[in-house]
Design a protein that fits this description.
Order of helices and strands: EHEHEEH
Helix content: 40-55%
Strand order of the largest sheet: 2-1-3-4
Number of strands: 4
Length: 85
């Protein structure tokens, strides 16, 4: 599924979210990962619709990966394997 945009649900002041955002920037994934701050009503609603209960969380179109370790592992798969599905 080339070209799919992943959604990173995050909180600005949260260390795990900062780490996930930094990973996106460090690995030049800005064109593939949409940053969604759950402080905004629309982003929070989308996060909750997908089963969100903790941040950071990464939606890949099928699964919501929650928590910094799970998010970073999924982002690493995107970088290492060149895939987003």
């Amino acid at each position: 599924m080339v070209g799919r945009v992943l959604e990173l649900f995050h909180r600005i002041a949260e260390p795990g979210s900062a780490e996930a955002r930094r990973y996106v920037v460090d690995y030049a994934l800005e064109d593939r990962v949409s940053l969604r701050n759950v402080a905004f009503e629309e982003a929070e609603a989308a996060w909750k619709e997908r089963g969100g209960h903790s941040t950071p969380a990464l939606w890949d179109g099928e699964h919501l990966h929650q928590g910094a370790q799970a998010v970073l592992a999924r982002l690493q798969a995107v970088v290492n394997l060149g895939r987003d599905g």
